[in-house]
Design a protein that fits this description.
Elements (H helix, E strand, L loop, with lengths): L4 E5 L5 H9 L2 E6 L9 E4 L12 E4 L23 H9 L5 E5 L15 E5 L12 E5 L21 H11 L3 H10 L6 H5 L4 H15 L18
Parallel strand pairs: 1-2, 1-4, 2-3, 4-5
Antiparallel strand pairs: 5-7, 6-7
Length: 232
């Protein structure tokens, strides 16, 4: 049987899409900007108007810059639109399971509430990754975090000179030379694309939970692209 098809809106270079693929979905990406490294079927189009019919599930990662606490004050008002509410309205009418991802500060729930909203906050350390990238996910179905964060782990910080030196001393590798992509598990991306992506581990976990909740049949498929050091 074929994999269920998932629509990856605001797909970027494919961090979220790769996670859903690993969970067992066929993935189709949509972004208003050309994404030449996106590893699956891609359409350059507006996520707010792209047809939603024909998909078993939908993921959306609207622009995060105007919600981000780290970027607040560094971007001009209105330069990056706030599209979470508009996207939620659109997805609620789709009739299929959906997920919205964004940064801390976005209007997304972090857990299920009494009004039927479902959400989760994920961190790279929950999955053994050397990145502390907190992201919020609102879902149309209940979901719980795999475990708590472990902020005692020495992480990769590609921006801070002292942090880079400390990481180099501990791990023996310079985080500026591909280690950031490796830590995020996105080796097919450029360094710039990786700084804007989420680790595939997040959506692999969410996708697996969604498949369990919907009882889709998912055939086995190997993960691609392979990580550095893996053999075929």
């Amino acid at each position: 049987m074929r994999r269920p098809k998932l629509l990856d809106l605001f797909c970027g270079a494919g961090g979220a899409g790769m996670g859903y693929f690993r969970a067992g979905f066929e993935v189709v990406g949509v972004d208003i900007k050309l994404q030449s490294r996106y590893p699956f079927e891609f359409h350059q189009a507006d996520a707010l108007t792209f047809p939603l019919d024909g998909f078993a599930a939908i993921h959306a990662s609207p622009p995060c810059q105007d919600y981000s606490k780290n970027l607040r004050g560094l971007v001009r008002g209105g330069q990056y639109p706030r599209l979470v509410d508009a996207m939620r309205d659109r997805l609620e009418g789709s009739g299929v399971p959906w997920i919205i991802e964004n940064v801390e500060g976005a209007p997304l729930p972090v857990q299920s509430d009494l009004f039927g909203a479902h959400g989760i906050e994920l961190c790279g350390t929950m999955f053994g990754l050397l990145v502390r990238r907190h992201r919020l996910f609102e879902a149309s179905f209940p979901i719980a975090a795999p475990r708590g964060c472990d902020h005692s782990v020495e992480i990769i910080n590609p921006y801070d000179n002292k942090a880079r030196q400390k990481f180099r001393e501990i791990h023996g590798v310079d985080p500026r030379r591909g280690a950031w992509q490796a830590a995020m598990d996105v080796p097919w991306m450029s360094a710039t694309e990786a700084t804007e992506a989420i680790p595939p581990a997040y959506t692999e976990y969410i996708g697996a939970a969604m498949l369990r909740s919907r009882s889709y049949y998912v055939p086995y498929a190997p993960r691609v692209p392979m990580r550095p050091g893996e053999s075929g």
